[in-house]
Amino acid sequence: MPELTPREITRELDRFIVGQDDAKRSVAIALRNRYRRAQLPPELREEIAPKNILMIGPTGVGKTEIARRLAKLVEAPLVKVEATKFTEVGYVGRDVESIVRDLVEAAIRMVKAEHAERVKARAQVLTEDRLASLIVSPPKHKTNPIDMLLGNRPKEPDVPPEEQQRAQGRREEIRERLGRGELEDYEIEVEVEDTPVPVEINGASVSIGDMMGNMLPKRTKLRRMKVSEARKILLAEEEGKLIDMDTVTEEALRRAEQDGIVFIDEIDKIAGRSTGGHGPDVSREGVQRDILPIVEGSTVNTKYGPVKTDFMLFIAAGAFHVAKVTDLIPELQGRFPVHVTLKSLTKEDFRLILIQPENALTRQYKALLSVDHVDIVFEDSALDVLAEAAYLANENGEDIGARRLVSVFERLLDDISFNADGTMPSFTLTINGEYVHKHLGAEATRRDLRQYIL
Q: Using CA atoms, how far apart are residues 405 and 145, in angstroms rounded to an integer?
């Protein structure tokens, strides 16, 4: 992403995340350094490793949201994982090397989508040809997998030249009608791949077909569907035929190695030292030691080939309200040199969250209820009371950050969301501070003084 400077990256994140300027700044610098490194001579480029980031802060303040927005912002493979999903080698569960395999899969999907876009015009022409042929000459048989394995193809009947010419004329007529969109609801039979149900092994879904590779022929079946649905399936098939998967795989592996980003959430949940050789802490430290080689730089075998992790960017995040950063093993701490502390949300932060982001809750609920002809208008006094209610709820109970606003909104709009059914005439509902007090109740905006009693 050569056109995005650190300031531009920060501005893009500002569109959806309130505050946390230090975290945005660190992420923006790390992403820009990926571009800077790519411009260096190869011999110098190999000496520069990414500066991994550890984000520390309570839940609901934007750590995971930063990762989500990065995935949409950067043209690089990114995978988000939770540290609690992994177990030490020798235990039942996911092994940490599956992180790299997931990243490679994300890279394959990304590069394949780019190549599909390049051949889309040609694939659309071929798809229209196949649709016209299926309408004119419906399939009368389904290929037997055993015959395919033995190379036996059903013999095509001899068609007189006059009949072939008439069929060609009908296909041209059908193509014109397809182009005008007149046959979208017409039903045809299409031969599609019969995908076997995957089985679960050690927490991962595995297809028997993938395990056997190309040793077995693909099983197919006839499905009856509308032209509009068949077009999507046939377009994907034609794109797959036009795409060189060897080129896709080569490019995807390069991107995963050089541009891959791994976001490890809840890393604080695996922090903890061994306590005498038994108990859950042993497994936690074991997971850390398994993660360490990947972060340091190692080679992981995938079904597409070996992948090096030396130049992947790792971003870890955790609340660390029970464990401390120093509870991580020293070697792992050293692999995350950039530490960023995210702050708890203030009352003013809650108010900005209600109006500033492009996906603000006020806009979301306004759009949802407009479907049933209800126009909601939030006055400034309502925003003040809503922000205070969310802030006090976090103060009096468990601090869940910005997620508290969702529960506050659901409680506030419960009646109108239930009664609005689209049958009543359009009307405008103005929500002010008094309306919020009435529907949330006095206890929602009252500070709990018991927390100050010793």
A: 56
Contacts of 27 (CB under 8 A, 6+ apart): 9, 13, 53, 66, 70, 315
- Per the model's pLDDT, the better-predicted residue between 148 and 398 turns out to be 398
Maximum Cα–Cα distance across the chain: 99
194 band by pLDDT with thresholds 50, 70 and 90 = low
Residue 91: band (very low, low, confident or very high) from pLDDT cuts 50, 70, 90: low
**43: exposed, middle or buried (Cβ count in 10 Å: 0-12, 13-18, 19+):** exposed
CB contact at 8 A, 343 and 58: no
27-38: per-residue pLDDT in tens?
888 888 888 888
Residues 6+ apart with CB under 8 A from 273: 281, 285, 327
| Banded pLDDT at 102 (limits 50, 70, 90) | very high
What is the average per-residue pLDDT within 226-243? 87
Task: Name the residue among 317, 252, 261 with its Cα closest to residue 51.
Answer: 261
pLDDT at 140 over 60: yes
DSSP summary character for residue 208:
H
Q: Is the pLDDT of residue 81 over 70?
A: yes
Q: What is the pLDDT of residue 222?
A: 79
User: For the chain, how big is the Rg over CA atoms in Å?
Assistant: 28
Amino acid at site 246: D
Q: Which residue has the higher pLDDT, 8 or 91?
A: 8
Rounding to the nearest 10 degrees, give the CA dihedral for residues 438, 440, 443, 447.
Answer: -110
DSSP 356: S
285 in Cβ contact with 274 (< 8 Å) = yes
DSSP assignment string, 389-442: HHHHHHHHS---TTHHHHHHHHHHTHHHHHH--S-SPPEEEEE-HHHHHHHH-G
* Global pTM value: 0.76
Tokens representing 330 are 């020293």
- The whole-angstrom separation of Cα 294 and Cα 287 is 11
Best CA proximity match to 117, nearest among 243, 281, 267: 243
Cβ 83 vs Cβ 265: under 8 Å: yes
